[in-house]
Amino acid sequence: MIVGAVQWTQAIVITGCFALITFVGLYAGRWHKSKGANELDEWALGGRSFGGILTWFLQGGSVYTVYAFVAVPALVYGGGAIGFFALPYLIITYLVAFLVVPKLWDLAKARGYVTPADFVRDRFRSRLLAAAVTLTGLVATMPYIALQVYGIEICFSQIGMPVQVSLWSAFVLLAVITYVSGLRSATLIAIVKDVFIWTTVLAAVIYIPIHLGGYAHAFSKVPKSQLVLPGNLYADYATLALGSGLALFLYPHVLTGALSSRSRYVVQRNSIFLPIYTIMLGLLAILGYLAIAAGIKPSPHYGANIAVPALLDKVFPAWFAGFGLASIAIGALVPAAMMAIAAANLFTRNVYVEFVNREASSKQQAHVSKLASLVVKFGAVGFVVLVPTTFVINFQLAAGVWILQTLPAVFLGLLWRKLAAPAVLAGWAVGTAIGTALLIKVGFTTSSYAFGWSGHHTKLFIGVPALAANLVAAAGVTVALRLRSGDDLVPVRSPDGS
Fold first, then answer.
1. How many whole angstroms separate alpha carbon 494 and alpha carbon 106?
2. Where are the alpha helices (DSSP H) in 260-409?
3. Could you tell me the domains of the chain?
4. pTM, full prediction
5. Which of 173, 142, 167, 174 is nearest to 152 (CA)?
């Protein structure tokens, strides 16, 4: 399908930018190449050698995705102030990262964990629970990769390219770069991406208001109902922030970025400095309001998700519009590459090695992961093609409902020594069943559900009540097991294996 006539200036600029990051991504495979270049640790975690600066860029690339560049402004554009839940959510998530992730890094370094399911398998000594965490990670990652692919598609469509061509072009480019260079490609591209994105965002928040007659004039064109959060959405806003904040570092790709660090102190420092990116997210969210003021109309095909790409294309000169669209698309490639790597690692370490070939060498595991990363991308493309959406942010939020149910296994498994595998598995099953049932009930068109009785209803992010049920079930089974046996349950292993 052709969206419109090709805008050649924008197309040329975008092509040039993609050529640049293709070169950077392929070069990354030779950059600081170690002796174990063909082994899984090198391909999947960059040899666990990244310092503070590289980890900062890489973690920023994994956290700030098309979700930030397209989905959040689209939610503000279409839904109003509820879209700003992303700001407190990131405050919560960095606190979680500071307190919990360094401890997981210690264990991963000492015992060679590559995925969160590796930790779960070792901590609980349960193949079934590790399989549940693996399955959840794969299922939750697929729509998140799809979100990135979808964002790239929108950017190409904005300049009139055929939808299918844009989609498969992005897929092939991502597949080649990831296969060849692994996590190092995402790291170097993340640096280029940040330069592009910050340039675009700063230019947008300065130039666009001037073009529209100033911020005051622009905001006067936004309906008051969208500028203020209605009282009936307070609980929805709070649970969206809380649930998303707890979920983020449970995603395999975000933990992959943390585990690639060379020390636990790098992880802690990044938790302190990563909030700088939150400033950028707030500025991006404001672009949703500026799109309203600029008269941007929802797209018949992409709905509100077209807000920022259409705004850039309308307001800026053609060459800079192309640069801005390229920035968004490149901003999608970094997390998409990390997600594909993380999903492939889950399959390799926790399915292939666990159930198919327990004697697989590190080189064999790297080879399987590379092939699996290609299959993962096919699944993501299929998700975009087959699943209808209203706001693309629901891709990520639906995934958040599922991944949040692994919190007891991963985070509480680090902190609660008496927590047992049967209890965690029961909680996961209850939480996942409830969350999925509610998502189906709302048709995956939103991640919130109106709970209530006697005519009084309160909207909540589905993941939070599902997690509450998960924790209640896990606690109940834990108590029942202890009352029945009176034995101590499996403790968390310390980094030295004791």
1. 9
2. 264-273, 276-293, 307-315, 318-347, 362-386, 393-403, 407
3. 8-391 (1.20.1730.10)
4. 0.89
5. 167
